[in-house]
Amino acid sequence: MSKRNQIGFYSLEDLVPQEHLLRDIDKYIDFSFIYQLVEDKYDQSNGRPSLDPVMLIKLPLIQYLYGIKSMRQTIKEVEVNMAYRWFLGLDIQDSIPHFSTFGKNYSRRFKGTDIFEQIFYGILAQCIEAHLVDTSEIFIDRTHIKAHANNKKYESKEITEDTLFYVKSLQKEIEIDREKQLKKPLKRKEESEENRKVKKISKIDADSGWFHKGEHKQVFAYATQVACDKNGCVGYTIHPGNQHDSRTFISIYNKLKSHFTLDKLVMDAGYKTPGIVHLLFQDNLTPVFPYKRPMTKKGFFKKYDYVYDEYYNQYICPNMKTLAYTTTNRDGYREYKSNSYDCMTCSLINKCTQSKDKRKQVQRHLWEDDMVRCENIRHSLGMTSIYNNRKQTIERLFGTAKEFHGLRYTNLIGKEKMHMKIGLTFACLSIKKLAKMLKSRDLEGSIFLSIFNYLPKLIIEYKKDKPITLNE
């Protein structure tokens, strides 16, 4: 007999399992701060009554929390999922907002604002209040997200890239160094000329970047740069997928400095550049980097095979010949070259250089001492174990976000919408982590309390059963 047409009285509270994740989120996460964030976006004196702003924000949170592909599909899920209705504050008979509701509110109220980043930091503030944020070790890395763009629809354009953050300070040091070495000042080029490059621009999503995914595959993509501690994400930025780590680092670094007190920054080899290392030492921070393999052809001497003589400002090659200083180039590298006569008669020439003029050149950056200091830190006690924690922190965060929260690719177009997606995705990860850890604390506290309450009874029973001895 079919029970589909059976009529009964049901409570929505009873239809949601007690162990459901959304129950924990509703219990431990305070979403009331959203009202203050959107207060100036609503006019209380005009128009029809609007949807509750918290419910409006909870809709995309459900989407990213459960990795649902689109808002249209999210609304379909809310229609049949009692837990989603309960979380949104809707009854069984309440009508569900149209799938275009959030998009229209985004265009009219939220576009051009940082509201979603503020939501992320609002959740992060609750994590800090619960003592779940430890900024003594911050892990920074980036991951790529495939853009919603056809790889074949593009045009090549000449664009001007932003100037690297350390260029001005490096130029001053180049001028000082050349003056010390009795060299003429370099002729300055216009920044637009130096940073002008031809790149592929997508006709569908011009904000994305042409990213080389391995040796064979190339796609249009975005790159999100993320900072996290041992528990979760503490900051993020979004960039085109073709920008190098050394170019995008300064944006995430400035955000971290404005919100936290930093100590150790743990990053991969892509960030191990003289500019970044010099900046961190200037700010009295400890950079933790891995070993970076020299970019030298197989069978040739590595750079560390040439010994630097600081006193005479020269290099000594493996055959004990000197490479004298010649100039300091506009990239901040001192150039040291050998004597062509020494190289022509050298038996190790085939392992040293293939240059036509039979001269070996070695370059040394003006901030090379900072790179050496960075290597000394890498060899310090405990630094290897700190770097290896990336597997349990930042890499696990990326894996979870891509596998379960829809961050492997995007169906949104434009950097601003991607910024919203990234902010809400990592806000969801923080929400989930905060709810689970606070629930775990409560369980540990209740177990300890029950043991503490039962202990006096246990002592009384023990004394009753204990035999009396002569000593007593």
UniProtKB/TrEMBL annotation:
Protein name: IS1182 family transposase ISEnfa2
Positions of the Transposase DDE domain: 316-435
Origin species: Vagococcus luciliae
InterPro entries in UniProt: IS1182_transpos, Tnp_DDE_dom, Transposase_InsH_N
Residue span(s) of domain Transposase InsH N-terminal: 11-108
